[in-house]
Design goal:
33% strand; Aminopeptidase; globular; alpha+beta; 162 residues
Length: 162
């Protein structure tokens, strides 16, 4: 079962939307109730409008030819999307995607990355050397969700986890 990374393509939109929905609806179930998860990842399965991932640095992970996860970073250094299928959790998929985005950020000369992480993502990012800046509560479609502002220093000599 081979994992391969590649750049996002417009034709990935539906598959990445499905990964997002499953990651939120199933993977985040320990941390957010059903109403919160529905507010976070509502129907329709594929978002309408412009595909924001085409304007970001987005990496897709494929396992045996199927999309297993993706992560995206804006040119300014905001890690916007970071999702893997529930069955990919703990298999190194997120770590591989993260490493690819860090390499891209460093090559672009970015010195600091930021994100807003869920309860589940916060644990992953902390293991990758991100620091917690602030806990926040946001309201989305009438539901209150906890999230965490985090940042990652990319300066030469910054702590890099083993």
């Amino acid at each position: 079962m081979t994992l391969a990374l590649r750049p996002y393509r417009a034709t990935d939109r539906a598959a990445c939307a499905a990964v997002f929905r499953r990651a939120v609806r199933e993977g985040a179930a320990r941390f957010y109730d059903a109403a919160q998860r529905e507010a976070w990842a509502p129907d329709p399965a594929v978002p309408r409008g412009a595909d924001k991932l085409l304007a970001q640095w987005c990496v897709v992970a494929e396992r045996d030819g199927s999309v297993a996860g993706f992560m995206s970073l804006t040119p300014e250094g905001y890690l916007d999307m970071a999702f893997v299928l529930p069955e990919e959790m703990g298999r190194g998929t997120a770590a591989a995607l993260h490493a690819a985005l860090l390499a891209r950020a460093r090559a672009a000369g970015l010195m600091r990355l930021t994100t807003h992480a869920s309860h589940l993502a916060r644990r992953f990012f902390a293991r990758q050397g991100w620091q917690l800046d602030a806990a926040e509560t946001v309201t989305l479609r009438g539901q209150r969700l906890d999230r965490f502002a985090m940042s990652r220093d990319l300066h030469e000599g910054a702590d890099v986890p083993a």
